[in-house]
Write a structure and sequence with these properties.
With about 325 residues, the chain is mainly alpha-helical. About 50% of the residues lie in helices and about 10% in strands. The chain folds into 2 domains: about 230 residues, Lysozyme (Orthogonal Bundle), CATH 1.10.530.10; about 55 residues, no CATH class.
């Protein structure tokens, strides 16, 4: 079924983005998925792998969740995302709260963990992370961000993890492919009222998101990192992940959690400490956000790398 779905979206007619990649500041991170005479430019995982983020347990854990059916759950250690095992979701749901508590206590004892360590039971989410549905929007998002002069890595990240291939409205009111809140969308120039909601327009939403990141999120992340004593490299994965946290949680919440962490030795250390630290409204969902971004990039790259050989009559190459 998955192979048929991928065949379908690869057969769709895309605009050629070969011109887009020429003389791009981020050209070295782009890969071209070439199907016949069509070329689809997306962001590759080179920077993530070069800094060895792909070796961490957290993105590996979320990659499994992205592939797992909601019929199953993964038992894991919250702070490290160490996987303990899997079980059918129905089996977990059938247990009483007392039984669930006893089970988690037994896991902690078997691993020699303190009572304060949370044991999570995380449901599979392959029904939400639909890489087949979102793929065709990636080159378009990348093109919009490039046109706006904003790092297209953010476009791909947001499209992969916020509402991939769907136009669902979140419980707090975020909507559209870039999941913009109503007030933020209006501040970025979009019309959002009872009769019109331009957040559903892909191009308008993309430029609004790019404006938000370029004018607000990146400057805020830069200031937060500098105050933490870090040297800024805006192309570094750790800095991009910090920007993603600002996009998701807001600058004040990110500032609060970074101040609680103190003075990390490196940006990489800062991000990994953010995964296990809370402050203000920076909670579990915020901790997971950059982990999901890493996982989504890595999973997309694996899907694209495998498909040309086993399914598609196409090749993957670095853009030169």
């Amino acid at each position: 079924m998955m192979q048929n779905t991928f065949l379908t979206f690869f057969s769709l007619c895309f605009l050629s983005f070969s011109v887009l990649a020429q003389n791009s500041k981020w050209e070295h991170e782009m890969i071209a998925v070439i199907d016949g005479e069509k070329e689809h430019v997306i962001i590759g995982p080179k920077a993530i792998k070069a800094a060895e983020w792909d070796n961490l347990q957290q993105p590996q854990f979320w990659r499994q969740i992205m592939l797992l059916s909601p019929d199953s759950v993964i038992i894991n250690v919250a702070s490290t995302r160490q996987i303990i095992g899997k079980m059918p979701n129905r089996k977990w749901v059938k247990q009483t709260e007392a039984q669930k508590s006893l089970f988690k206590d037994s896991v902690r004892r078997s691993l020699g963990l303190p009572e304060s360590e949370r044991i999570n039971v995380t449901t599979g989410k392959n029904d939400f992370y639909r890489f087949d549905l979102v793929f065709e929007s990636l080159p378009k998002g990348i093109a919009c961000f490039e046109e706006a002069g904003v790092d297209p890595w953010y476009a791909q990240s947001i499209l992969l993890i916020e509402s991939p291939g769907q136009l669902a409205k979140s419980s707090v009111g975020a909507y559209g492919p870039f999941q913009l809140m109503p007030g933020v969308a209006r501040a970025m120039g979009l019309k959002v009222n009872k009769t019109v909601d331009e957040r559903k327009d892909f191009r308008k939403s993309a430029f609004a998101a790019a404006k938000l990141i370029g004018k607000s999120c990146i400057p805020s992340a830069r200031s937060i990192a500098q105050n933490a004593g870090l040297t800024i490299d805006e192309d570094a994965i750790w800095f991009r992940l910090l920007v993603m946290h600002v996009y998701h949680a807001g600058a004040l919440n990110v500032k609060a959690v970074v101040e609680r962490i103190g003075k990390p030795a490196t940006g990489e250390e800062l991000i990994q400490k953010m995964w296990v630290t809370t402050a203000a409204s920076f909670g579990n969902a915020s901790q997971n956000y950059s982990q999901l971004a890493l996982a989504a990039h890595l999973q997309l790259a694996e899907i694209v790398a495998k498909k040309p050989d086993c399914v598609f009559d196409c090749v993957v190459a670095e853009v030169e």
